[in-house]
What does this fold into?
Amino acid sequence: MSDNLLNRYGPWALVTGASSGIGRAFAYELAERKFNLVLVARSKDVLEAIAIEIKSKFAVEVCVITADLGNSAGSRAVLDQVESMEIGLLVASAGFGGSGPFVEGDVLHDLDMIQVNCTACVELTHSLSQKMKGRKRGGVILLSSLLGWQGVPLSAIYAATKSFIQSFAEAIHIELKPDGVDVLAVAPGPVVTNFDRRANMTIEKGATPKIVAQQALTALGRRSTVVPGPLSKLLTYSLLALPRAVRVRIMRQIMSGLSNHGK
Ligand SMILES: NC(=O)c1ccc[n+]([C@@H]2O[C@H](COP(=O)([O-])OP(=O)(O)OC[C@H]3O[C@@H](n4cnc5c(N)ncnc54)[C@H](OP(=O)(O)O)[C@@H]3O)[C@@H](O)[C@H]2O)c1
It folds into this structure.
């Protein structure tokens, strides 16, 4: 297999969640590999500043789409705007978490999370991978999580959204392989980004977003799942050796340490 990602998936990559953290890191890694980029998030000014920097540093084309993926109109608007472009690589990194007891939380917040983390991913992946299948080439990178390997008390809905993404990615990895479309689930443990603030958690130690993006791009086309970074690997493989019910209890302990709920 050629190592040249641009030959395999170029010329255009669409990155959601490109204004921050892991999505932003993917944008820079892909620009360095000479992909033209469509950057999607809600923060217009941040995206535009990133676009200016990437264009001047890497001499690639960058298109900014401001959209709220918390409703289907947002996904539709993104798809309409890229209708005529040859998007060969989708990185669906937009997402957010939450922490605290399920029954005490705001169910509208949880439903918004399901929409952004799951529904928008399905909408974008369905439309863009249909076109990739028609061209017999393409790549899809979906962000799951270490939390998706089992239920996680105090982050019940977030963990469930990531289980959904992991299962979805594993299945379409097999379905789309014969059509020349590579699908990868990226399942990090803690990554130092803005994620924890929005999720009402504190993550002090973790992988860098750059490592996550680099390891994912290396794994794309070779594997169905990548667990990026040494800490994520250690946590994943030590936990996966245990019975699922035990893991759920351990996750409760871990999450009560990370969550700021009630502190
Ligand atoms: N950080 C971790 O420890 C970790 C671990 C495992 C998996 N992940 C997953 O990695 C992905 C990226 O997270 P991150 O760590 O990079 O977090 P982050 O720094 O908070 O970035 C999240 C991105 O998602 C975008 N986003 C959030 N809500 C959106 C909405 N309604 N519409 C459009 N875009 C939206 C944000 O942009 P705007 O606010 O500008 O819209 C931002 O660009 C997420 O799917 C997360 O679940 C993170």
